[in-house]
Design brief:
This protein is mostly helical. The protein is built from two helices and no strands. Keywords: DNA-binding.
């Protein structure tokens, strides 16, 4: 569970596992939107604006592809 992990201890592997589990329950587009939202939060935390984290753990995770319409 991601919520149980301290902010500084979060790694890309945590989010990769979350993504795989979440894809079993919701559509790829929903997971992709949530990944973008979470990634934006981490990007803000990494910048000089906040300076909370050295890197964004979401930056290396591939977003799921949505099926063709």
């Amino acid at each position: 569970m991601i919520a149980a992990i301290r902010l500084f201890d979060l790694e890309a592997s945590n989010f990769s596992e979350w993504c795989d589990r979440w894809l079993r329950e919701v559509a790829p587009g929903s997971v992709k939107r949530e990944m973008i939202l979470i990634g934006t939060g981490f990007s803000t935390a990494v910048t000089n604006e906040w300076g909370f984290m050295p890197t964004n753990p979401m930056s290396t995770i591939k977003k799921p592809k949505e099926p063709a319409a």
